[in-house]
Each structure stands twice: as C-alpha cells, then as structure tokens.
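Inverse folding, one chain.
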C-alpha cells in the first residue's frame, strides 16, 4: 500500500457530491447487476448517460472487496476474468461482499483504447478525480469517494495493453514499514505471480493504489500479459489468481484443490534506471526477451531508421541490473516511448 507521502501529494478532489448514480443498493443482500450511470449530454442525446457495468454480490458478514478491470481499455485480461466471475458466482458462494467494475473506464474499454476517447484522460492517472470534471475525472471521483470507502481490499487487474507485454507481476507500493511490505508480498504470493515489484509512490497520488490508501483499503495491482490481445495462459493466470485471493480472504470457500502458489521473486523499480526509453524515433529491434537477466551496459537493442537506411542504427543499452518484466510490443517507436521495464534487486 502507498505510504503517507502519496496522501500528502495527492491532488484535491473538487468540492461537491458525485453526479453518477446507480440503482444498486450496496447494503442489500444478494446479487445485483446494473449500470453506473455517468451523465453525458451530447447532440444525439440531451439527457443521456453512459452505462458503466457494475455488480454487487453480498452475503452476510465478511471481507469487502472491490475488483476492477478495464481501468485501461486496451487491457482485456481483467475485463474477461471479472465478466466470467460475475456470470458464475451466486450469492451463496460469497461470504462478505464483492463490488465488481469489469469496465471501470467504460468509454476507453468500449473503444479498446488505453485512454478515454471522450477526454483523452487516463483513469489511473487522475485520482481522486473531480465530481464536476470530464467523464474520466467523474469516474475516478466516484470510485474513490463512493466505492473505495465501502471496502477493505481493492484489486486492480491490468496488463501491458496494446503497447507493452508483462510477465505476471504484482505491482506493490514501497513502504518504509517492513510489516506492510510483507503484507503486500503475501498477497502477491497468494495470487501466484512470478514477480512482485515494488514501485516508489503511485503516480503522484493519482493511481488506484494511492486512492485506496487514502481510503484505508489494502490495494494491489496485477499486470498479466498484454500485446493488445489475450491468451489462454494469461486468462488462466488471471482467473486462478483472483480465485486464490478471494479464497485466501475467506470471501469464497476454499475447497482445498488449489495447489500452493510458488514464492514470487521480489524486485523493485524504484529508480529511473529501471526503465529503458527510446531516445530517437525508429523501428526497435530488441536484443533480449521477457525474463532475460541483464546488467547495466548490456545491449537492449537497436533503433533502426529505414527512412535513412544508410545511417547506422542507434544502440540502446540497459542502465541497471535486473530481470526484464515488460517489453514494448509495436516495432515502431518514438522518442520517449518505453521499451523495457526491469525488476531490479531489492531487500524487502
């Protein structure tokens, strides 16, 4: 979970109550499926609203969990995993409450795009949002001020989307509290990711993890797959991980059939050197693949310029030691694009 630094740095939400509404009563027992109504007045629909799918499954006492997918609309593993969970769970399967947003940034998810086509905003960079802002800011405000205060845990399912591909990795927020770091590592172990990677801060307090911390909910983000598509393995990993977490917390019954997950490798991306960026435009030819172990100075790849084929390609080198957790998917890159993300050694 993010530390107090994120709370202090977070931008202030706009004054006023949310303009979003739903017919779901979150205090009601049972399974309730409907939409979060985001007001959206346009030429074709003066009093219209956008239908953000929303589900509450509540049965007695127990942990309360918010599950989110589609925070980035081109990341499909979480959207499909949560859709399947909604279809298969009955109230009697649950102890406590699940609140599920499978397409959290609905306009972006419908468009299959990282950011919303309505305001070019990235939901995971605008928390706590504003009640009087553009659609993405209104969604962020509702999630942080209405949903997150109701839950004990927030699990946000991501992937590399259309520009990146991730090995299964839990994204943890660095804390000076060793006990807090251990709590996060334990949840990553339960989910079953190969890596647990600590980040410093949470995008200036504007991410879902920072939002959950402000609402005193335990949060974890999971990165699984990407490339703008889904694979059978990424779906199995995501579904198995979510089930493992919910059984571990006691929200779902443990039938004892799940094998014990392996310990994740604990790494960190606490310094800028953990990331490799293109410093020129060109077609990137990587020299290593996902999972590679690299050292500072090792060749990461070359940026080629077919438009000037007589010019030598630009060498790209790693600036840190670590494991390659994430790599760029499109061949064409521009100056400033992320090419690789390393998980570097850390004492946790």
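Residues assigned per position:
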């Amino acid at each position: 979970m993010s530390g107090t630094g994120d709370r202090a740095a977070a931008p202030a939400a706009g004054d006023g109550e949310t303009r979003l509404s739903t017919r779901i009563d979150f205090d009601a027992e049972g399974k309730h499926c409907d939409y979060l109504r985001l007001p959206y007045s346009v030429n074709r629909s003066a009093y219209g609203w956008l239908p953000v799918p929303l589900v509450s499954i509540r049965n007695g006492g127990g942990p309360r969990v918010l599950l989110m997918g589609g925070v980035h609309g081109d990341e499909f593993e979480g959207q499909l995993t949560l859709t399947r969970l909604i279809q298969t769970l009955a109230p009697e399967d649950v102890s406590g409450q699940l609140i599920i947003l499978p397409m959290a940034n609905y306009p972006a998810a419908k468009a299959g795009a990282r950011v919303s086509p309505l305001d070019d905003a990235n939901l995971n960079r605008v928390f706590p949002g504003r009640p009087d802002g553009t659609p993405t800011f209104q969604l962020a405000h509702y999630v942080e001020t209405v949903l997150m205060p109701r839950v004990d845990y927030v699990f946000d399912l991501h992937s590399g989307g259309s520009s990146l591909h991730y090995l299964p990795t839990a994204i943890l927020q660095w804390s000076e509290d060793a006990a807090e770091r251990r709590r996060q590592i334990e949840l990553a172990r339960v989910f079953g990711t190969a890596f647990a990677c600590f980040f410093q801060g949470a995008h200036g307090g504007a991410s879902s993890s920072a939002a959950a911390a402000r609402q005193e909910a335990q949060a974890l983000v999971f990165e699984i797959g990407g490339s703008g598509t889904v694979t059978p393995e990424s779906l199995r990993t995501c579904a198995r991980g979510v089930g493992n977490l919910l059984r571990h917390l006691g929200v779902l019954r443990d039938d004892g059939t799940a094998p014990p997950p392996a310990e994740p490798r604990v790494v960190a991306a606490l310094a800028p050197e953990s990331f490799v960026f293109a410093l020129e435009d060109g077609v990137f030819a990587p020299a290593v693949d996902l999972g590679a172990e690299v050292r500072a100075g090792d060749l990461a790849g070359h940026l080629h310029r077919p438009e000037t084929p007589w010019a030598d390609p630009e060498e790209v080198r790693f600036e840190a030691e670590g494991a390659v957790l994430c790599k760029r998917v499109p061949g064409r890159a521009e100056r400033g694009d992320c090419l690789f993300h390393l998980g570097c050694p850390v004492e946790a």
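The two ends are 14 Å apart (CA to CA). The chain has two domains: 4-267, 272-343.
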